[in-house]
Design brief:
The chain is mainly β. It has a single domain, classed as Ribbon (Umud Fragment, subunit A). The protein contains 2 helices and 13 strands. Strands 1, 2, 3, 4, 9, 10, 11 and 12 form an 8-stranded antiparallel sheet that branches. It has a 5-stranded antiparallel sheet with strand order 8-5-6-7-13, with no helix packed on it. Strand 6 and strand 7 form a beta hairpin. 24% of the residues are buried.
Amino acid sequence: MDLQKSNDRSDISEENVVVEPKKETWWDIIRFALITLAVVIPIRMYIAQPFIVSGLSMFPTFNDKEYLIVDEISYRFNPPTRGDVIIFRFPEDQSKFFIKRIIGLPGETVTISDGKVYITKNGEKSLLDEPYIKEQTTKNSQTKLDSDQYFVMGDNRAVSYDSRYWGPLNISFIRGRALVRLFPPNKISYQPGEFNNYQLTK
């Protein structure tokens, strides 16, 4: 049996039904803004924060004007580790933020001698291998770290103002670690500059 197309418009409607979109009220706009703020503000305050690198203290790992997203939540669960690139409030002026690399951990002694960095832990002194730096430090020092202190330095040792000059960094000043580099586009990366594969030579 052949099926014939029906010409009876009562069977199939070919008319398009247009539903007029609902007009937004001021209350809808305010409600959307409040929901957005309720989501964004906690993220900005407690989870992730954008920062722009200023200066060359971490060159060549980071350059001036690079845009970073800082992870502010991980250190609530796990302590910072050697090699982490961190952002912290400068202890001598807490309105300023610094970016440096963690070199010494709580309880260790950091000795800088003849351009080399030594870590003493549990009575054993070891040379720290740092493949990410171009120039060795020229300032000799020895620093014993308390249970809540870290020794931090910039990768560009010649210009970095760090723990060699103003002392250990208390953990309370640490804001977070560099999580993502978003700018420049050709250097977008996850956990930029982080280095945890240290070789301690006795």
